[in-house]
Amino acid sequence: MGTTPFDGSRWWGMARGPLSKMAFGVIALVVLMALLAPWLSPFDPNAMNLDAVLAPPSWQHWAGTDELGRDVATRIMYGAQPSLAAGLGIVAIGLGLGLLIGTFSGLMAGWVDALIMRLTDVAMALPGMVIALALTAALGPSLLNAVIALGLLSVPAYIRVARGQALALREREFVLAARAMGASNWHLIRAHLLPGVLPPVLVFTTFHLGAAILASSALSFIGLGAQPPMAEWGSMIGMGREYVLGHWWMVVIPGVVIMLTAASFNLLGDALRDALDPRVRKA
Questions:
Q1: pLDDT for the residue numbered 2
Q2: Average pLDDT score over residue span 146-162
Q3: How far apart are CA 29 and CA 27, in angstroms?
Q4: By CB neighbour count within 10 A (0-12 exposed, 13-18 middle, 19+ buried), where does 88 fall?
Q5: What pLDDT does residue 14 have?
Q6: Chain-centre distance of CA 149, in angstroms?
Q7: Per-domain residue ranges for the chain?
Q8: Is the bond into 57 cis (omega within 30 degrees of 0)?
Q9: Which of 24, 140, 210, 260 has the smallest number of CB atoms closer than 10 Å to its CB?
Q10: Where does residue 181 rank: exposed (0-12), middle (13-18), buried (19+ CB within 10 A)?
Q11: Helix 72-108 and helix 249-276: axis angle, to 10°?
């Protein structure tokens, strides 16, 4: 029998590399921090301690404290939840809209496909971060508005990925047979195109998740994302940038966490791409 794209043994084989193991470990640690932060740290993320303002890393505060005496390690743990939620929200918006529009565009072809792709080209030609800044400023500074703005801006990229795969599938025998039997466009998309379109889109989604976390952190860094006193990685770096020369831990440690998380999702995307590539599996 043939091996399906999501065969567990093939996926496990791709996940046994040292870099893949490291990526899984980092992602698992971040997820655990997000879920178990109240039980992992004895400190309140927003509790001020004026007797321990800007304290360097120590046994009591192993990542130091910030300008208000708040434990940096605790705020990193609590900040994992909004940071991951923002990345997942951005990806969910892009995936949900882009997958359906791109698959529909590839199935219909003709003038419908041409119109959708010209609009997509225009959207992708716009400076993404500048548009995100404008949308977030117009909607109002908040993490939710930042997620909505960045999610909408990611839709065109998903459309292109889904559309390219749908174009390759629309002329396959099983699609032509279903169309000849009178299947509706929705049935063709749901039953015949989405199963084939989904694997490469999932690979793109994994890569995009790391970039989405970076983008949401960037908006929080400049004050358009998460608002004080919420613990969020980007806002922590933004508040600590004034103290970076003398109190490096306020910026360096959250920055390293963001870097490792984004890099781990990219490595996970590499492993997922290899697991779904039949040429790599054969090798």
A1: 36
A2: 94
A3: 5
A4: middle
A5: 55
A6: 14
A7: 83-277
A8: no
A9: 140
A10: exposed
A11: 30
Using CA atoms, how far apart are residues 135 and 146, in angstroms rounded to an integer?
8
Q: What are phi and psi of 65, to 5 degrees?
A: -125, 165
Name beta bridge partners: 65: 71
Q: How far is C-alpha 230 from the geometric centre of its chain's CA atoms?
A: 20
The CATH H-level (homologous superfamily) assignment of domain 83-277 is: MetI-like (1.10.3720.10)
CB 70 within 8 A of CB 61: no
How many residues appear in the chain? 283
Token pair belonging to 172 = 């396959």
Rg value, the chain, Cα: 22
Residues 6 or more apart whose CB falls under 8 angstroms from that of 167 comprise 106, 109
- Output the pTM of the full model: 0.89
Closest CA to 221 of 79, 50, 91: 79
3-state helix, strand and coil shares in percent for the chain, rounded to the nearest 5: 75, 0, 25
Q: Per-residue pLDDT tens for 261-271?
A: 999 999 988 88
How many whole angstroms separate alpha carbon 165 and alpha carbon 163? Answer: 5
Lookup: tokens for 256: 């390293």
For the stretch 90-144, pLDDT in tens is: 999 999 999 999 999 999 888 999 999 999 999 988 888 888 888 888 888 999 9
Residue that the structure tokens 């007797």 belong to = 51
Distance from chain centroid for Cα 170:
29
pLDDT in tens, 179-203: 888 888 888 888 888 888 998 899 8
Cβ atoms of 166 and 107 within 8 Å: the answer is: yes
The CA distances from residue 165 to 102, 105, 158, 170, in Å, are 9, 11, 11, 9
